[in-house]
Write a structure and sequence with these properties.
Elements lengths: L1 H22 L2 H6 L4 H15 L26 E7 L7 H21 L22 E3 L8 E5 L4 H9 L6 E5 L11 E5 L6 H15 L14 H6 L26 E2 L21 E2 L5 H6 L7 E12 L2 E10 L5 E14 L6 E7 L10 E7 L7 E10 L2 E9 L3 E6 L5 E4 L2 H9 L5
Parallel strand pairs: 1-2, 1-3, 3-5
Antiparallel strand pairs: 4-5, 6-8, 7-8, 8-9, 9-10, 10-13, 11-12, 13-14, 14-15, 15-16
Organism: Pseudobacteriovorax antillogorgiicola
Protein name: Matrixin
GO molecular function: metallopeptidase activity
Length: about 425
């Protein structure tokens, strides 16, 4: 009898919660003081769709949530800044910070030729490119992008209320217009710190969503940004960069990446910190592997990786160990092939209504699909080996998951991994992920 009563109660609660989620708007949910975890668990997406869909930033609503907000190379995004009187950073400094962050992203987009890329066959807007013109104006109802520092509004309050966790920042648009592909919205930054470099870093992250960058696509878009900003492990040089030494957006030909960097992590946090921020101690490398590579004990080495060639699925790399004291460079060449495991496309793109091409025989008429602006990113694990001598090749794997990582086999029984500073810190401190 008791079991029947419990089951009946659960059925009623489930029905009531589903009814609430199907019928309420965002404002109604707050007015009714509904438990936000209950709403989030059942139908936050449907609530988003009732408000127009297309939320972006810290979670939310639809397949279009990571879409680029503004398309059209002949257009201009008008933006403005609102600051709460008690916000710990001055209005003038915030104005400079916003402009600097926009320019950083424009430089990044041009660096990877994303600013000039076009998507063909979008219905109602032929071959659009990203909008790269931004001009500041006084805030008004028609402003395209509003930066809110310590200031909120009903839309942001509603979204935060319905989330299971409170974030420090948010990029949010009310809807995604698949006709105009012009989607005004807000970037909200909480009054969480007096350190301008941390505010700048969070601003860069949220602005990345406006350009269609997904979480974990590049250093500043790391999924656990709130934990980094709240942590005591990082200092000034860590923040304010779109890419880091070991976490670029892509591996470009002949561009040397520093795998051993710990720039911005405070001293004494990581083990073997007698080395500078660019190097690691050879003592952290297994002895068998250290001897095979002819590395000196009790020394510090900067470790770099450079892609030198590609032919079809065969990739050539140079791995270098540079002695911090003598500057002597030991370099090893290696050949690697892609695995078949895809890690997902991290670049910006558009999920929208497409006109079917003549080559798309499987489709009749129009289709809905996600199409990226970027092609050929090297985001797959690569397996191969580095040549030590004419008779010896060290098995290795190069991975690109939340930054570059290198795994090398010592030839006997042990693998050695060199990860990004965040993952090394996680392993050393056994803390929540960053």
């Amino acid at each position: 009898m008791r079991l029947l009563s419990i089951l009946t109660t659960l059925l009623i609660l489930t029905f009531e919660t589903a009814t609430i989620a199907n019928s309420l708007t965002l404002g109604d949910a707050i007015d009714a003081k509904i438990d936000r975890r209950q709403i989030h668990r059942y139908d936050l997406n449907r609530l988003a769709e009732q408000e127009g869909g297309g939320w972006s930033g810290n979670g939310g609503g639809s397949l279009a949530q990571d879409n680029i907000w503004f398309l059209g190379s002949d257009r201009t995004v008008r933006y403005c800044i609102e600051r709460a009187p008690q916000y710990p950073i001055s209005r003038l400094r915030l104005r400079v910070m916003v402009r600097k962050s926009i320019d950083q992203w424009l430089g990044f987009l041009n660096r990877y030729h994303l600013g000039q890329a076009q998507i063909d066959r979008l219905i109602s807007l032929n071959a659009p490119a990203m909008t790269l013109k931004f001009e500041q104006e006084a805030c008004q109802e028609t402003t395209d992008l509003v930066f809110l520092f310590g200031v909120s509004n009903q839309l942001i309050d509603s979204y935060r209320y319905l989330q299971s966790e409170d974030g420090l920042g948010l990029a949010i648009r009310r809807s995604y217009n698949h006709e105009t592909r012009w989607n005004p919205g807000y970037i909200w930054i909480d009054s969480f710190s007096t350190q301008a470099e941390k505010v700048h870093h969070l601003l860069l992250h949220e602005l990345g969503h406006v350009f269609g960058l997904k979480h974990d696509s590049v250093f500043v878009m790391g999924n656990h940004i709130d934990a980094r900003l709240r942590s005591d492990y990082f200092d000034g040089p860590y923040f304010g960069r779109i890419e880091s030494e070991a976490w670029p957006f892509d591996l470009r030909m002949n561009e040397e990446r520093i795998l051993s960097s710990s720039l911005g992590i405070k001293e004494h946090i990581l083990p073997f910190r007698e080395c500078d921020v660019w190097s690691i101690s050879s003592q952290s490398i297994p002895k068998v592997l250290r001897d095979t590579l002819h590395l000196q004990p009790q020394s510090c080495y900067k470790i770099t990786l450079r892609k030198t060639d590609r032919q079809d699925q065969l990739h050539s790399f140079k791995l270098a160990f540079i002695n911090q004291t003598s500057n002597k460079r030991l370099e090893f060449s290696g050949s690697f092939t892609d695995t078949k495991v895809e890690t997902g496309h991290p670049g910006p793109g558009v999920y929208s209504h497409w006109a079917a091409s003549s080559a798309a025989k499987a489709f009749e008429g129009d289709v809905w699909a996600y199409v990226p602006f970027t092609k050929g990113l090297q985001q797959r694990r690569k397996n191969g080996c580095f040549i030590v001598s004419t008779q010896q090749c060290i098995p290795a794997s190069i991975n690109f998951s939340r930054g570059l990582s290198l795994d090398m086999f010592d030839g006997k029984s042990q693998w050695w991994s060199l990860n990004t500073p965040e993952l090394r810190l996680l392993e050393a401190k056994k803390q929540a992920p960053f």
